[in-house]
Amino acid sequence: MYNSKIIGLGYYVPDNVVTNDDLSKMMDTNDAWIQERTGIKERRWAIENSEDTTSGMGIKAAKIAIERAGIDKDDIDFIVFATLSPDMYFPGPGVQVQHALDIKTVGALDVRNQCSGFVYAISIADQYIKTGMYKNVLVIGSELHSHGLDKTTRGRGVSVIFGDGAGAAILTREEDNTKGILSTHLHSQGEHAEELVLVAPGMGKRWVNDILKDNDPNDESYFPHMNGQFVFKNAVVRFSEVIMEGLAKNNLEKEAIDILIPHQANLRISQFIQKRFDLSDDQVFNNIQKYGNTTAASIPIALTEAWEEGKIKEGDVVVLAAFGSGFTWGSVIIKW
């Protein structure tokens, strides 16, 4: 069996910067309130009717990753696209990437695991490469949150958190089993599905016909709902568990971590995990302050930025970890 390794990274975020002060003009909030609860100072929101769709941003990130990987687009054997905000209800954006990049008719898989989406997508790509089925896999995480948020005071608990953007990685074979992705670890707990949820439109509860029929301006079912305190309490526990699971699988102690790239859900969660693992500021990479929570895109954006800034070096132990809606969570242990 092979290992897989990341050989190309790229990210893209819209040019439009939305600060906390900008949000205070839309809803009853302020910079201090947002920073105290989330650590976020600003985020990127795509301009409506621009090219910055979920697939469009993913394509831009993918082009950068492909170029940095030093491969041709036709060397790609498979596409995995993670998002909760596809351009269309169906089909998913994976096939849009295949078409836009003019890649031969390879398979395209869409992953709907929200904040854990990129970790799940990396795990899928890793398994395909490990078994020898594919050699080069393009993995994308992309989100367009801003067009679906309640930008009134009613929705401020959620809408101040989320931003738009995309990140991408190229995975390929690594014959040295001591390098590359050493292991991935995935979990779910569906009993808490409605603690962080977007109910409508959904076939099971409330479809478009119901929304149009009722025409209720107070209907909140098609805006995201989050039980913030409950999510926070579960996140800090599951983050810790799944990181330790990955380290134990590879006979590593927490002191072996060179850099942790957590899903950028909330700066307070990242700081809690940093303290629990006794990691320095240089050992944890956060960029939620300027991008907000970009869900499936947050880890690939952060991973790319950390790599670009020289914070990841050959031989480093890199840990990716995520927790989010579902609940789903996971980790990836990498020897860079």
TrEMBL record:
Keywords per UniProt: Acyltransferase, Cytoplasm, Fatty acid biosynthesis, Fatty acid metabolism, Lipid biosynthesis, Lipid metabolism, Multifunctional enzyme, Transferase
Instruction: Name the GO cellular-component terms.
Output: cytoplasm
User: Where's the Beta-ketoacyl-[acyl-carrier-protein] synthase III C-terminal domain?
Assistant: 247-336
Enzyme class, first EC level, given as a word = transferase
Spell out the residue ranges making up region: ACP-binding: 264-268
Q: Which GO terms describe its biological process?
A: fatty acid biosynthetic process; secondary metabolite biosynthetic process
Q: What Gene Ontology terms describe what this protein does at the molecular function level?
A: 3-oxoacyl-[acyl-carrier-protein] synthase activity; beta-ketoacyl-acyl-carrier-protein synthase III activity
Q: Which Pfam families match?
A: ACP_syn_III, ACP_syn_III_C
Q: What Gene3D superfamilies does its record include?
A: 3.40.47.10
Q: Pathway membership of this protein? A: Lipid metabolism; fatty acid biosynthesis
Q: Which residues form the Beta-ketoacyl-[acyl-carrier-protein] synthase III N-terminal domain?
A: 109-190
Localization of this protein = Cytoplasm
Q: What is its EC number?
A: 2.3.1.180
Catalytic reaction annotation? malonyl-[ACP] + acetyl-CoA + H(+) = 3-oxobutanoyl-[ACP] + CO2 + CoA
Q: Where is the active site?
A: 115, 263, 293
The keyword Cytoplasm is assigned to this record: yes
User: Is Transmembrane helix one of the keywords?
Assistant: no
In terms of PANTHER family, this protein maps to:
3-OXOACYL-[ACYL-CARRIER-PROTEIN] SYNTHASE 3, BETA-KETOACYL-[ACYL-CARRIER-PROTEIN] SYNTHASE III
NCBIfam families xref list: fabH, PRK09352.1
Tell me the protein family, please: Belongs to the thiolase-like superfamily. FabH family.
Quaternary structure, per UniProt, is:
Homodimer.
Function per UniProt: Catalyzes the condensation reaction of fatty acid synthesis by the addition to an acyl acceptor of two carbons from malonyl-ACP. Catalyzes the first condensation reaction which initiates fatty acid synthesis and may therefore play a role in governing the total rate of fatty acid production. Possesses both acetoacetyl-ACP synthase and acetyl transacylase activities. Its substrate specificity determines the biosynthesis of branched-chain and/or straight-chain of fatty acids.
Q: What is known of its domains?
A: The last Arg residue of the ACP-binding site is essential for the weak association between ACP/AcpP and FabH.
Q: What is this protein called?
A: Beta-ketoacyl-[acyl-carrier-protein] synthase III
Q: Which organism is it from?
A: Gelidibacter gilvus
The organism's taxonomic lineage, starting at the top: Bacteria, Pseudomonadati, Bacteroidota, Flavobacteriia, Flavobacteriales
